[in-house]
Design brief:
Layout: H1 2-29, H2 36-65, H3 72-105, H4 110-113, H5 116-132, H6 135-141, H7 159-165, H8 171-206, H9 210-238, H10 245-269, H11 272-281
Helix pairs in contact: 1-2, 1-10, 2-3, 2-10, 3-5, 3-8, 3-9, 8-9, 9-10
Length: about 290
């Protein structure tokens, strides 16, 4: 089964890489897409490319070379990078929900509120917070020296599978991981992401025309689809019972491979601006066919 699995994973990775690079290229080349929404979408594409590359490259290399070992230092780097990028993706989606709130609820002030400086500061804050929130976890994890096994029950290095292998006292790391994961990575982004949609829905209900309601909902549909998809897979990966570890790996594969592949497809297929941009920059490619 190694050959078909390799071809499947490789095809998913190529689609992910091609789709997200296309989004980035369109955002850079087309001035029609030089607005806050697509600036944050470009950040999301960078995260998707990085996350897929960091987690899937080891699978592809192991199938090609047959080598299934990973140095400890590289394992810790992979753990840190995956945790940082996963956190950053949640933070950037939170910022995008507020961008959609301003676009729907305060359209006349949109360009004044979401100006270039504000967007740059918000994106920078997401990157900094994403990379800092994992340092303490990986720092504690890297101090463990006693392990009951050298085989990681996962397809990439992550905090939970490594914690299961160690015979050291993990109480401090488990407590920190629980509270940081529960509040900083789960509850806070979840609440802050969906809170603007309460006001967005209230604003849409007040619109008197059906066409106006459809246009307002269409503005948020792509972002809302991506958010629901990501939180569903993350919840299935980390909140399911420990007894079904095989399902956790399946959800992890879906989260690190399928979700980054679907994100550019969702934004391109459901977004009129992106489709028009592709027609302008790539006339031979017509999405309406």
């Amino acid at each position: 089964m190694q050959v078909p699995i390799f071809l499947l994973v490789f095809a998913i990775y190529l689609i992910t890489l091609g789709g997200n690079l296309t989004i980035l290229l369109l955002i850079c080349l087309d001035y029609h897409l030089h607005n806050p929404m697509y600036f944050f979408l470009g950040n999301l594409s960078v995260v998707d490319i990085s996350c897929s590359t960091i987690t899937l490259h080891r699978i592809l290399l192991s199938f090609l070379t047959g080598e299934k070992t990973i140095p400890v230092t590289e394992c810790m780097i992979q753990t840190y990078m995956f945790g940082s990028l996963a956190g950053h993706e949640l933070f950037i989606l939170t910022i995008m929900s507020y961008d959609r709130y301003v676009a729907v609820c305060k359209p006349l002030n949109y360009h004044m509120v979401m100006n270039r400086r504000t967007c740059g500061l918000m994106a920078s804050f997401c990157w900094v917070l994403g990379f800092f929130q994992t340092i303490s976890l990986v720092g504690i994890l890297s101090t463990y020296e006693c392990y009951t096994s050298i085989e990681i029950d996962h397809f990439f290095c992550d905090i939970v599978p490594i914690m299961k292998m160690t015979c050291s006292d993990t109480s401090v790391l488990e407590t920190l991981f629980f509270y940081q994961g529960l509040f900083l990575i789960t509850i806070a982004p979840f609440v802050l992401t969906f809170m603007p949609y309460v006001f967005i829905i209230a604003a849409i209900v007040k619109i008197h025309t059906n066409s106006g309601r459809r246009k307002a909902f269409y503005t948020c549909s792509s972002h809302l689809t991506v958010v629901v998809l990501l939180y569903t897979t993350l919840g299935s990966q980390y909140l399911t019972p420990k007894s079904i570890s095989s399902s956790k790996k399946l959800f992890a594969l879906f989260n690190t491979a399928i979700v980054p592949m679907l994100n550019p497809l969702i934004y391109s297929l459901k977004n009129k601006d992106v489709k028009e941009s592709m027609k302008r920059k790539f006339p031979c490619f017509n999405l309406t066919r």
